Amino acid sequence: MNFVKEIETALKNASIKAGYDENLSVSFSNMGGCDFQCNGCFALSKKYGKNPFDIASEIVGNIEENKLFKFEVSRPAFINIKVTDEGFKSVANFMLSDQMGGLEKNEISQKVLLDYGGANVAKALHIGHLRPAIIGESLKRLYRLLGDEVISDVHLGDWGLQMGLTELQLFEEGKLDSYFGRSQQRYDITIDDLNEAYPTANKRKVNEEDFKKKAEEWTLKIQHKEEPYYEIFKVIRELSVKEISANYLKLGASFELWKGESDAHDFCDEAVKVIKEKGLARESEGALIVDVANEGENIPAGQNEDGTVRYNNPMPPCLIQKTNGAYLYATTDIATILMRNKEYKLDRIEYVTDGRQKMHFNQVFRVCKKSGISPEGQELVHIVNGTMNGSDGKPFKTRSGDTVKLEDIIGMLTGKAKEKLLSNGASSDDETALMIGVGAMKFGDLSNTVSKDYVFDIDKFMAFEGKTGPYLQYMVVRINSILEKLNGKEGGEIFISCDEEREIISKILKLNSSYQICYRDRSLNALCTGLYDLASAFATFYNNHNIINESDENRQKSFISLITLVRKKMLQALDVLAIKVPKKM
Q1: Exposed (0-12), middle (13-18) or buried (19+): which is 241, by Cβ within 10 Å?
Q2: Could you tell me the CA-to-CA distances from 191 to 25, 124, 239, 243 in Å, in that order?
Q3: CB contact at 8 A, 52 and 41
Q4: Does 206 have pLDDT greater than 70?
Q5: Quick one: pLDDT band at residue 66, thresholds 50, 70, 90?
């Protein structure tokens, strides 16, 4: 039962009778006195050369009697639609019995590969990995709920210079001696070793040219799968994946595929061959590039102070092979799209990263489209997420200015949740604290438009009232508590007799409509707003009605079914946001 479609059908039939035969769209109304509104008669007045109020009146006058809705015209030419109590009752009971709670799946299902990990092997996850994981996981769940087939891929950074740097540092520390026959005793590399080795090596490469050159040679040996370099790589990769997956799981993020740049490396030769055969590649100073600028882009506009050319609307060529024959980050990503299209028949490939990679993906997508590596009709999408900033408006850092590790953020959130629980006299076990802390972080993040920066305010996010994750979790816990105190009493048919009940059903209808907005915008903020509005409507209902002590049995059964429906819809939305609900708060 889709109220909007039913209203639009009624208006369509009436417009035919009135002699217009037009489709009229309907939206939720923010005005008091009606639930939906149609303003399409203004456009019809231009088309038919008639007064819009007269057109609206003619259409409403031709609407057949309907028990679910009341139609009326208000000046200048709005058609206002009010849902009757019978209408609210009908849709409420339908949503309660419907498996999807009245939510409709997309008419056409698509096969989507969603890339939202991007973690680097041999490096600790940091705050920059937080938003892509939170956003990507929720989009995956949203797409699946609405009927898409989704494959998620972490796409590890496991094939670059960081591998050579890390191995070389471990070698010089004597921790790889057994691999090179220098010792009979094998040293067991730990995640702590990796967390120390890479930062040390990364600093050394800046100041020690010989070390950097040797690390580059070491990286090449790994990529050529020479032993024991490649064997060590596999050990480091496996160790890193265990650590990375454990931290992602704390965020509620999981992946079907744990592939990386190393998996795409074998497709680089084929990708470059395809590009060459299409006549797209040209040599420039010994390197291989692809011109991807469209008309009106990359137009020379003079010189910079350093003598380099300045361009208007710059779109530089995509570099796919160095002068020494080595492949680049862009080549690997092009090869990854080639690999994915060989393995899966995909309608869309989507990436979630920050804005620093905007130019990169623009270039990569254009190369793939020009070369046919991405077939016609396939959508390539880069979802740009904003940054999480501190109170100073700058990217969130430690007091010393270092990048914050993801595990430290999770620890901070969990610790703050424990403090809040203890101050409220509630249980503060680790599992509950983790659910509340991570839930607060996720809701605080997803409440914002994906592309926008926002301030990480842990006190605001962790509040147990207002538009926060803990508030929503608490509302579900409260409903569970009410149902538990009713000792298994069953609900009955929902009937509508007060404004609070009407408001709840209205908010559920709006919540259901928000899913398509989120799907269209690839952002979850509309769902967060709809979820909070429903929770607030329930809170008002709860404060005004004593569900447990209601003396009218039929009315109590209606209340039970109503709050069961609220819980159903809240849990559905929270699951899309990957927010768990604890047993107690």
Answers
A1: middle
A2: 57, 9, 7, 7
A3: yes
A4: yes
A5: confident
Q: What is the CATH number of the domain that holds 314?
A: 3.40.50.620
Nearest to 582 by CA among 447, 421, 456, 408: 421
From 59, 77, 69, select the one nearest 1 (Cα to Cα): 69
pTM of the complete model:
0.93
Residue at which a domain ends, from 250, 271, 291: 250
Q: Measure the CA angle with vertex 156, ends 153 and 158; round to 5°.
A: 150
What is the C-alpha to C-alpha distance for residues 334 and 274, in angstroms, rounded to an integer? 11
Rounded-to-integer distance, Cα 54 and Cα 48, Å: 11
Q: Model confidence at 399, in pLDDT bands (50, 70, 90)?
A: low
Same domain, 274 and 367: yes
Does one domain contain both 365 and 227? no
Convert the pLDDT of each residue in 225-258 to its tens digit.
Answer: 999 999 999 999 999 999 999 999 999 999 999 9
Tokens of 278: 């299409």
Provide φ and ψ at 278, rounded to 5°: -80, -5
Phi, psi of 547 (to 5 degrees): -65, -45
Residues 55 and 78 occupy one common structural domain: yes
Contact 20, 44 (CB under 8 A): yes
Mean pLDDT of the region 192-197: 94
Do 362 and 447 share a domain, yes or no?
A: no
Beta-strand runs (E) in 306-394 = 309-312, 318-321, 348-354, 379-385, 388-389
pLDDT band at 400 (very low <50, low <70, confident <90, very high): low
Condensed to tens digits (0 to 9), the pLDDT of residues 290-328 reads: 999 998 898 888 888 888 888 888 899 999 999 988 899
- What φ, ψ does residue 377 adopt, rounded to 5°? 95, -20
> Mean pLDDT, the chain, as a whole number?
94
Q: Is residue 220 part of a domain?
A: yes
- Count of residues making up the chain: 585
Q: Do 420 and 481 belong to one domain?
A: yes
268, 221: one domain: no
User: What's the domain range around 567?
Assistant: 406-576
Sequence-distant (6+) residues with CB within 8 A of 298 are 311, 313, 314, 315, 316
pLDDT at residue 487 above 70? yes
